[in-house]
Protein backbone atom coordinates (compact mmCIF):
# COMPACT_ATOMS: atom_id res chain seq x y z
CA UNK A 1 0.00 0.00 0.00
CA UNK A 2 1.40 3.40 -0.92
CA UNK A 3 1.48 6.17 1.66
CA UNK A 4 -1.40 8.62 1.50
CA UNK A 5 -0.47 12.12 2.63
CA UNK A 6 -3.14 14.46 3.90
CA UNK A 7 -2.80 18.22 3.66
CA UNK A 8 -2.42 19.46 7.26
CA UNK A 9 -5.41 21.36 8.59
CA UNK A 10 -7.02 21.76 11.98
CA UNK A 11 -10.30 20.86 10.24
CA UNK A 12 -8.97 17.27 10.10
CA UNK A 13 -9.02 16.52 13.78
CA UNK A 14 -6.31 14.48 15.42
CA UNK A 15 -7.29 11.96 18.08
CA UNK A 16 -6.08 11.46 21.65
CA UNK A 17 -4.01 8.57 20.27
CA UNK A 18 -2.61 10.22 17.12
CA UNK A 19 1.00 10.44 18.32
CA UNK A 20 1.02 6.75 19.19
CA UNK A 21 -0.81 5.84 15.96
CA UNK A 22 1.83 7.62 13.89
CA UNK A 23 4.72 6.04 15.76
CA UNK A 24 3.11 2.58 15.44
CA UNK A 25 3.68 2.79 11.67
CA UNK A 26 0.41 3.89 10.14
CA UNK A 27 0.55 3.35 6.37
CA UNK A 28 -2.41 5.43 5.24
CA UNK A 29 -5.30 7.52 6.51
CA UNK A 30 -8.88 8.15 5.53
CA UNK A 31 -11.32 10.75 6.88
CA UNK A 32 -14.32 9.59 8.91
CA UNK A 33 -16.57 11.96 10.83
CA UNK A 34 -14.10 14.79 10.14
CA UNK A 35 -11.32 12.84 11.87
CA UNK A 36 -8.36 10.71 10.82
CA UNK A 37 -8.66 6.90 10.69
CA UNK A 38 -5.37 5.07 10.13
CA UNK A 39 -4.45 1.82 8.35
CA UNK A 40 -1.29 -0.08 9.22
CA UNK A 41 -0.93 -3.33 7.36
CA UNK A 42 1.38 -4.09 4.46
CA UNK A 43 -1.44 -6.23 3.04
CA UNK A 44 -5.05 -6.79 4.20
CA UNK A 45 -4.26 -10.52 4.45
CA UNK A 46 -1.43 -9.95 6.95
CA UNK A 47 -3.64 -7.81 9.16
CA UNK A 48 -6.51 -10.31 8.81
CA UNK A 49 -4.40 -13.21 10.03
CA UNK A 50 -3.06 -11.26 12.99
CA UNK A 51 -6.56 -10.10 14.01
CA UNK A 52 -7.76 -13.71 13.99
CA UNK A 53 -4.89 -15.04 16.08
CA UNK A 54 -3.70 -12.33 18.50
CA UNK A 55 -4.94 -8.94 19.72
CA UNK A 56 -5.08 -5.49 18.18
CA UNK A 57 -5.69 -1.98 19.52
CA UNK A 58 -7.67 0.24 17.17
CA UNK A 59 -7.90 4.02 17.36
CA UNK A 60 -11.56 4.41 16.41
CA UNK A 61 -11.97 7.88 17.91
CA UNK A 62 -13.67 8.77 14.62
CA UNK A 63 -16.77 7.03 16.01
CA UNK A 64 -17.85 10.31 17.55
CA UNK A 65 -20.46 10.44 20.29
CA UNK A 66 -23.61 12.50 20.25
CA UNK A 67 -24.57 12.93 23.90
CA UNK A 68 -28.26 13.44 24.65
CA UNK A 69 -28.88 14.47 28.24
CA UNK A 70 -31.93 15.71 30.09
CA UNK A 71 -35.53 14.85 31.04
CA UNK A 72 -36.54 14.30 27.39
CA UNK A 73 -33.43 12.31 26.40
CA UNK A 74 -35.25 9.00 25.87
CA UNK A 75 -37.98 10.72 23.86
CA UNK A 76 -35.42 12.29 21.51
CA UNK A 77 -33.46 9.05 21.04
CA UNK A 78 -36.70 7.19 20.31
CA UNK A 79 -37.70 9.79 17.70
CA UNK A 80 -34.71 8.71 15.59
CA UNK A 81 -35.08 4.91 15.57
CA UNK A 82 -37.67 2.14 15.06
CA UNK A 83 -35.97 0.06 17.76
CA UNK A 84 -37.91 0.13 21.03
CA UNK A 85 -35.62 1.91 23.51
CA UNK A 86 -38.01 1.83 26.47
CA UNK A 87 -36.60 -1.32 28.10
CA UNK A 88 -32.93 -0.48 27.68
CA UNK A 89 -30.96 -0.78 30.93
CA UNK A 90 -28.32 1.61 32.25
CA UNK A 91 -25.46 -0.81 31.42
CA UNK A 92 -26.65 -1.71 27.92
CA UNK A 93 -25.55 -0.90 24.39
CA UNK A 94 -28.02 -1.20 21.50
CA UNK A 95 -27.36 -1.33 17.78
CA UNK A 96 -29.90 1.14 16.40
CA UNK A 97 -30.89 1.93 12.82
CA UNK A 98 -31.69 5.64 12.69
CA UNK A 99 -34.24 6.76 10.10
CA UNK A 100 -35.76 9.96 8.79
CA UNK A 101 -39.45 10.71 8.32
CA UNK A 102 -39.45 8.74 5.05
CA UNK A 103 -38.10 5.65 6.79
CA UNK A 104 -34.69 5.94 5.11
CA UNK A 105 -31.46 5.20 6.95
CA UNK A 106 -29.62 8.14 8.49
CA UNK A 107 -27.01 6.22 10.51
CA UNK A 108 -26.56 2.95 12.38
CA UNK A 109 -24.83 3.81 15.66
CA UNK A 110 -24.37 1.89 18.86
CA UNK A 111 -26.47 3.62 21.50
CA UNK A 112 -25.00 3.56 25.01
CA UNK A 113 -27.34 4.18 27.92
CA UNK A 114 -25.54 5.82 30.84
CA UNK A 115 -28.63 6.64 32.89
CA UNK A 116 -32.35 7.27 32.62
CA UNK A 117 -31.73 10.72 31.15
CA UNK A 118 -28.37 10.26 29.43
CA UNK A 119 -27.36 8.49 26.21
CA UNK A 120 -24.47 8.38 23.77
CA UNK A 121 -24.93 7.64 20.07
CA UNK A 122 -21.61 6.21 18.83
CA UNK A 123 -21.82 7.15 15.18
CA UNK A 124 -21.01 5.76 11.78
CA UNK A 125 -19.79 8.32 9.25
CA UNK A 126 -22.45 11.01 8.91
CA UNK A 127 -23.39 14.29 10.57
CA UNK A 128 -25.98 13.40 13.20
CA UNK A 129 -25.14 16.04 15.81
CA UNK A 130 -26.96 18.79 13.93
CA UNK A 131 -29.83 16.43 13.06
CA UNK A 132 -30.41 15.64 16.74
CA UNK A 133 -30.06 19.29 17.69
CA UNK A 134 -32.65 20.18 15.06
CA UNK A 135 -35.10 17.56 16.31
CA UNK A 136 -34.67 18.75 19.89
CA UNK A 137 -35.16 22.42 19.00
CA UNK A 138 -38.04 21.81 16.61
CA UNK A 139 -39.88 19.63 19.12
CA UNK A 140 -39.21 21.88 22.10
CA UNK A 141 -37.53 19.07 24.07
CA UNK A 142 -35.83 19.60 27.43
CA UNK A 143 -32.42 18.13 26.50
CA UNK A 144 -28.82 19.06 25.89
CA UNK A 145 -27.30 17.71 22.65
CA UNK A 146 -23.54 17.95 22.24
CA UNK A 147 -20.35 16.09 21.33
CA UNK A 148 -18.46 15.10 24.50
CA UNK A 149 -14.69 14.61 24.70
CA UNK A 150 -15.09 10.84 24.40
CA UNK A 151 -12.99 8.77 22.01
CA UNK A 152 -13.42 5.01 21.54
CA UNK A 153 -10.41 2.68 21.53
CA UNK A 154 -11.15 -0.87 20.40
CA UNK A 155 -9.32 -3.93 21.74
CA UNK A 156 -10.12 -6.81 19.37
CA UNK A 157 -9.00 -10.39 18.76
CA UNK A 158 -8.97 -13.79 20.52
CA UNK A 159 -6.43 -12.53 23.11
CA UNK A 160 -8.41 -9.36 23.88
CA UNK A 161 -9.86 -10.79 27.10
CA UNK A 162 -6.41 -11.57 28.46
CA UNK A 163 -5.11 -8.10 27.67
CA UNK A 164 -8.14 -6.34 29.15
CA UNK A 165 -7.92 -8.51 32.27
CA UNK A 166 -4.28 -7.53 32.79
CA UNK A 167 -4.91 -3.80 32.45
CA UNK A 168 -8.44 -3.27 33.80
CA UNK A 169 -9.12 -6.32 36.00
CA UNK A 170 -10.83 -9.69 35.93
CA UNK A 171 -14.26 -8.25 36.68
CA UNK A 172 -14.31 -6.44 33.34
CA UNK A 173 -13.97 -9.60 31.25
CA UNK A 174 -17.19 -10.91 32.82
CA UNK A 175 -19.06 -8.09 31.06
CA UNK A 176 -21.88 -9.49 28.90
CA UNK A 177 -22.11 -8.85 25.16
CA UNK A 178 -23.28 -5.30 24.43
CA UNK A 179 -23.08 -4.47 28.13
CA UNK A 180 -20.72 -1.96 29.70
CA UNK A 181 -18.97 -1.34 33.01
CA UNK A 182 -17.08 1.58 34.51
CA UNK A 183 -13.32 1.42 35.03
CA UNK A 184 -11.11 3.96 36.75
CA UNK A 185 -7.87 4.87 35.02
CA UNK A 186 -5.51 7.24 36.80
CA UNK A 187 -8.43 8.67 38.76
CA UNK A 188 -10.71 9.12 35.73
CA UNK A 189 -13.90 7.05 35.33
CA UNK A 190 -14.43 5.63 31.84
CA UNK A 191 -16.88 3.25 30.18
CA UNK A 192 -15.71 -0.06 28.67
CA UNK A 193 -18.13 -2.21 26.66
CA UNK A 194 -17.97 -5.71 25.25
CA UNK A 195 -18.45 -4.68 21.64
CA UNK A 196 -16.48 -3.85 18.50
CA UNK A 197 -16.56 -3.96 14.71
CA UNK A 198 -15.10 -7.44 14.35
CA UNK A 199 -16.29 -11.01 14.89
CA UNK A 200 -13.20 -11.93 16.91
CA UNK A 201 -14.46 -10.64 20.26
CA UNK A 202 -13.18 -7.84 22.42
CA UNK A 203 -13.99 -4.49 23.95
CA UNK A 204 -14.37 -0.81 23.21
CA UNK A 205 -13.03 1.64 25.77
CA UNK A 206 -14.76 5.02 25.65
CA UNK A 207 -11.81 7.24 26.59
CA UNK A 208 -13.25 10.09 28.65
CA UNK A 209 -10.80 12.97 28.38
CA UNK A 210 -8.26 13.38 25.58
CA UNK A 211 -5.40 13.88 28.01
CA UNK A 212 -5.49 10.21 29.03
CA UNK A 213 -5.12 8.81 25.51
CA UNK A 214 -1.40 8.14 25.37
CA UNK A 215 -1.27 6.72 28.89
CA UNK A 216 -4.06 4.22 28.12
CA UNK A 217 -2.37 3.26 24.84
CA UNK A 218 0.98 2.73 26.55
CA UNK A 219 -0.56 0.65 29.34
CA UNK A 220 -2.16 -1.72 26.82
CA UNK A 221 0.98 -2.13 24.77
CA UNK A 222 3.20 -2.65 27.79
CA UNK A 223 0.86 -5.33 29.18
CA UNK A 224 0.43 -7.04 25.82
CA UNK A 225 4.02 -7.51 24.68
CA UNK A 226 3.93 -11.30 25.03
CA UNK A 227 0.45 -11.40 23.41
CA UNK A 228 1.82 -9.90 20.15
CA UNK A 229 -0.38 -6.82 20.58
CA UNK A 230 -0.30 -4.52 17.54
CA UNK A 231 -1.98 -1.35 16.38
CA UNK A 232 -4.71 -2.12 13.87
CA UNK A 233 -7.97 -1.03 12.30
CA UNK A 234 -11.20 -2.65 11.08
CA UNK A 235 -10.34 -5.34 8.54
CA UNK A 236 -12.21 -5.46 5.23
CA UNK A 237 -11.98 -9.23 4.78
CA UNK A 238 -13.04 -10.19 8.28
CA UNK A 239 -15.94 -7.74 8.44
CA UNK A 240 -17.40 -8.97 5.13
CA UNK A 241 -17.09 -12.61 6.25
CA UNK A 242 -19.06 -11.66 9.37
CA UNK A 243 -21.67 -9.58 7.53
CA UNK A 244 -20.78 -6.35 9.34
CA UNK A 245 -22.33 -3.69 7.13
CA UNK A 246 -20.61 -0.42 6.33
CA UNK A 247 -22.81 2.67 6.46
CA UNK A 248 -22.13 4.71 3.34
CA UNK A 249 -21.14 1.61 1.37
CA UNK A 250 -23.50 -1.31 1.99
CA UNK A 251 -26.16 0.86 3.62
CA UNK A 252 -26.91 4.35 2.33
CA UNK A 253 -29.52 7.03 2.89
CA UNK A 254 -31.47 5.55 -0.03
CA UNK A 255 -32.18 2.34 1.90
CA UNK A 256 -34.72 1.38 4.53
CA UNK A 257 -33.84 -0.81 7.51
CA UNK A 258 -35.80 -3.65 5.89
CA UNK A 259 -33.69 -3.42 2.73
CA UNK A 260 -30.57 -3.45 4.91
CA UNK A 261 -31.72 -6.67 6.58
CA UNK A 262 -32.33 -4.90 9.89
CA UNK A 263 -36.00 -5.72 10.25
CA UNK A 264 -35.43 -7.40 13.64
CA UNK A 265 -34.57 -3.94 15.02
CA UNK A 266 -37.84 -2.41 13.77
CA UNK A 267 -40.46 -2.61 16.51
CA UNK A 268 -43.28 -0.87 14.72
CA UNK A 269 -45.91 -1.86 17.28
CA UNK A 270 -44.10 -0.71 20.42
CA UNK A 271 -41.72 2.01 19.20
CA UNK A 272 -44.50 4.38 18.27
CA UNK A 273 -42.67 7.64 18.87
CA UNK A 274 -40.20 7.61 15.97
CA UNK A 275 -40.52 9.88 12.96
CA UNK A 276 -40.49 7.28 10.21
CA UNK A 277 -43.12 4.93 11.64
CA UNK A 278 -45.88 5.78 9.16
CA UNK A 279 -43.51 5.32 6.23
CA UNK A 280 -42.02 2.05 7.49
CA UNK A 281 -45.45 0.52 8.03
CA UNK A 282 -45.78 0.58 4.23
CA UNK A 283 -42.19 -0.55 3.54
CA UNK A 284 -42.00 -3.83 5.45
CA UNK A 285 -41.87 -6.00 2.32
CA UNK A 286 -38.78 -4.77 0.47
CA UNK A 287 -38.24 -5.39 -3.22
CA UNK A 288 -34.48 -5.74 -2.61
CA UNK A 289 -32.33 -6.69 0.35
CA UNK A 290 -28.73 -7.19 1.50
CA UNK A 291 -27.32 -10.64 0.72
CA UNK A 292 -23.99 -12.46 0.97
CA UNK A 293 -22.51 -13.66 -2.33
CA UNK A 294 -19.53 -15.81 -3.26
CA UNK A 295 -17.77 -14.56 -6.40
CA UNK A 296 -15.87 -17.06 -8.50
CA UNK A 297 -12.34 -16.59 -9.82
CA UNK A 298 -9.17 -15.03 -8.42
CA UNK A 299 -9.04 -12.05 -6.06
CA UNK A 300 -11.24 -9.23 -7.29
CA UNK A 301 -9.83 -5.71 -7.80
CA UNK A 302 -10.53 -2.98 -5.26
CA UNK A 303 -14.11 -1.78 -5.45
CA UNK A 304 -14.66 1.98 -5.65
CA UNK A 305 -18.11 2.01 -7.26
CA UNK A 306 -21.04 -0.47 -7.21
CA UNK A 307 -20.71 -3.47 -9.55
CA UNK A 308 -23.92 -4.50 -11.33
CA UNK A 309 -25.43 -7.95 -10.98
CA UNK A 310 -27.31 -9.47 -13.92
CA UNK A 311 -29.62 -12.45 -14.14
CA UNK A 312 -29.47 -15.16 -16.81
CA UNK A 313 -31.42 -12.98 -19.26
CA UNK A 314 -29.15 -9.97 -18.80
CA UNK A 315 -31.52 -7.94 -16.65
CA UNK A 316 -30.31 -6.02 -13.59
CA UNK A 317 -30.63 -8.18 -10.47
CA UNK A 318 -28.86 -5.94 -7.97
CA UNK A 319 -25.45 -4.46 -7.23
CA UNK A 320 -22.34 -5.32 -5.22
CA UNK A 321 -21.15 -2.87 -2.58
CA UNK A 322 -18.27 -4.75 -0.89
CA UNK A 323 -16.07 -7.60 -2.12
CA UNK A 324 -12.61 -8.99 -1.41
CA UNK A 325 -10.67 -12.26 -1.37
CA UNK A 326 -10.95 -14.42 1.76
CA UNK A 327 -7.93 -16.64 2.47
CA UNK A 328 -9.88 -18.79 4.95
CA UNK A 329 -12.88 -19.43 2.69
CA UNK A 330 -10.98 -19.51 -0.61
CA UNK A 331 -13.43 -17.27 -2.43
CA UNK A 332 -14.30 -13.62 -2.93
CA UNK A 333 -16.59 -12.76 -0.01
CA UNK A 334 -19.16 -10.22 -1.09
CA UNK A 335 -22.04 -8.04 0.12
CA UNK A 336 -24.72 -7.02 -2.38
CA UNK A 337 -28.18 -5.51 -2.59
CA UNK A 338 -30.22 -8.11 -4.51
CA UNK A 339 -33.75 -7.97 -5.92
CA UNK A 340 -36.34 -10.18 -4.24
CA UNK A 341 -36.79 -12.53 -7.20
CA UNK A 342 -33.08 -13.36 -7.13
CA UNK A 343 -32.12 -13.32 -3.44
CA UNK A 344 -32.82 -16.98 -2.65
CA UNK A 345 -29.83 -19.06 -1.51
CA UNK A 346 -28.12 -20.86 -4.41
CA UNK A 347 -29.25 -18.41 -7.10
CA UNK A 348 -26.51 -17.91 -9.70
CA UNK A 349 -26.01 -14.38 -11.04
CA UNK A 350 -23.39 -12.63 -13.15
CA UNK A 351 -21.26 -9.95 -11.53
CA UNK A 352 -19.95 -7.22 -13.83
CA UNK A 353 -16.49 -6.84 -12.28
CA UNK A 354 -14.06 -4.41 -13.97
CA UNK A 355 -11.70 -7.24 -15.00
CA UNK A 356 -14.50 -9.33 -16.53
CA UNK A 357 -17.75 -11.13 -15.76
CA UNK A 358 -17.81 -13.41 -12.69
CA UNK A 359 -20.25 -16.05 -11.53
CA UNK A 360 -21.88 -14.97 -8.26
CA UNK A 361 -23.75 -17.42 -6.01
CA UNK A 362 -26.22 -16.04 -3.46
CA UNK A 363 -25.65 -17.53 0.01
CA UNK A 364 -28.21 -18.24 2.72
CA UNK A 365 -26.02 -16.52 5.33
CA UNK A 366 -22.64 -14.90 5.87
CA UNK A 367 -19.54 -16.97 6.50
CA UNK A 368 -18.96 -16.36 10.22
Q: Give the H and E element order.
A: HEEHEEHEEEEEHEEHEEEHEHHEEEEEE
CATH topology of the largest domain: Gyrase A, domain 2
Query: How would you sum up the global shape?
Result: globular
The secondary-structure class comes to alpha+beta
Query: Which bin fits the share of residues in helices?
Result: 10-25%
Average pLDDT metric: 93
Number of self-contained structural domains: 3
Largest sheet: 6 strands, mixed
Structural commentary:
The chain has 368 residues and is of the alpha+beta class. The protein has three domains: 18-62 and 149-240, 2-Layer Sandwich (Gyrase A, domain 2), CATH 3.30.1360; 65-144, Aminomethyltransferase beta-barrel domains (Alpha-Beta Plaits); 287-368, Beta Barrel (Elongation Factor Tu (Ef-tu), domain 3). The chain contains eight helices and 21 strands. It has helices spanning 18-23, 44-53, 73-80, 129-139, 160-168, 213-223, 236-241, 277-281; strands at residues 28-32, 35-39, 55-59, 65-69, 93-95, 98-99, 105-107, 110-115, 118-122, 144-146, 150-156, 180-185, 188-193, 202-208, 229-232, 288-295, 307-310, 316-326, 331-339, 348-353, 356-362. A six-stranded mixed β-sheet has the order 12-13-14-11-3-15, with helices on both faces. The protein has a six-stranded antiparallel β-barrel with strand order 16-19-18-17-20-21. The protein is globular and about 65 Å long.
